[in-house]
Amino acid sequence: MAHVEPIRKRPDPPVAIHAHALDNLRYIRETMERAGSFTAVPGWGGVAMGATALAAAGLASHAPSREAWLAWWLIEGAVAVLAGIVAMARKARAAGLPLWNAPARKFVFSFVPPLIAGALLTVALWRLGAWSAVPAVWLMLYGAGVIAGGAFSAPVVPVMGACFLGAGATALFTPAAWGDFWLGLGFGALHIVFGAIIATKYGG
User: What is the pTM of this model?
Assistant: First the structure.
């Protein structure tokens, strides 16, 4: 038996309105993500970085030599970088955003150059025997990097950078024996305080 079909074919079913809405929301989110701020600055990661810095300050203050002192702080720097990257990745994943987005690139390209300058100055100061200036240089250049990168992040981040910069500037005019105190205050206490603020106000 022949199958009878209508002369005018039935139109395709209309696209559900929620599909349009999801597409629009996805476009809006991607646009804001490209033009927005870097929100994956780690709060609890900063607290962890501060805790390890306080431990490093205690250990380095009893180092038997300047080389051992430098080794403790270099180990602490590596641990802090690793903790920061892991915490940023987890925060970005929880927010459903890629870690390496446009705001993140702006943050990194502003934050990293002062750190490179700090590493090179550390080598130069150490070779000149001006090791007592190293803690102040570290704090000031880290603070400068945080301020620069913070222009693309939450408003509290540049404030944290300014506190680091102030601590480093003050450390320049105190005795060399106070170096571990200032490093513990900056990389330890400031990271803990501002990390807790970021975690509670900006989602972890």
Answer: 0.78
